[in-house]
Amino acid sequence: MESEIDYLYETDFMLSDEQTYSKWLINCAKKLGAKSVSIAFSFMDDEALHALNVKYLNHDSYTDIITFDDSVGKDVVANVAISIERVEHNAKTYSQSTQDELLRVMCHGLLHCLGLNDKTKDSQQEMRAAEDFCMKLFHVEHKTTNYVS
User: Fold this and answer.
1) Which of 41, 127, 111 lies closest to 76 in space, CA to CA?
2) The predicted structure's pLDDT at residue 71
3) Does pLDDT of 148 surpass 90?
4) pLDDT digits 0-9 by tens, 40-75
5) φ and ψ at residue 77, rounded to 5 degrees
């Protein structure tokens, strides 16, 4: 599968092993029927993501992720912006590790590009099941648990 995943950091946060995350995301995409993957993940703070939310989506609210999806069919092309502050906050709120919350958010962006959404209760359940599937793939493939620095 043709694939390219880039990581941009606008905060002190950094993934400790980008290659591990890339392999996982590509594997998820493959198993979910993607033909190719080209995604850029940008990690930023709440204020930077809030500014994007206001500017591009006209939403005056904080969020953990915004996916700018330019996919065509099963060829995934996207820019994904993630607030690390919001991921850390949500991890505490939902009693999750920061790594697991980050995994959920990252695959959530990918899943939007593959046609899943979370606008209705039914679609939210479908999205959650797909997120769980992807997260299990990560934990099965990578036995260690400290990939977030």
Assistant:
1) 111
2) 97
3) no
4) 999 999 999 999 999 999 999 999 999 999 999 999
5) -135, 120
Q: What is the DSSP string of the chain?
A: -EEEEEEEESSS--BS-HHHHHHHHHHHHHHTT-SEEEEEEEEE-HHHHHHHHHHHH---S--SEEEEE--BTTEEEEEEEEEHHHHHHHHHHTT--HHHHHHHHHHHHHHHHTT---SSHHHHHHHHHHHHHHHHHHHHH------B-
* pLDDT mean across residues, the chain: 93
Report the CATH fold assignment for 2-141. Answer: Collagenase (Catalytic Domain) (3.40.390)
- Do 28 and 134 meet the contact criterion of CB atoms below 8 Å apart? yes
Q: What is the tens place of the pLDDT at every residue in 108-143? A: 999 999 999 989 999 999 999 999 999 999 988 766
Closest CA to 66 of 85, 88, 42: 42
Give the integer Cα–Cα distance in Å for 112 and 69: 8
Strands 2-9 and 65-69, how do they pair?
unpaired
Q: Would you kindly state where each structural domain of the chain is located, as residue ranges?
A: 2-141
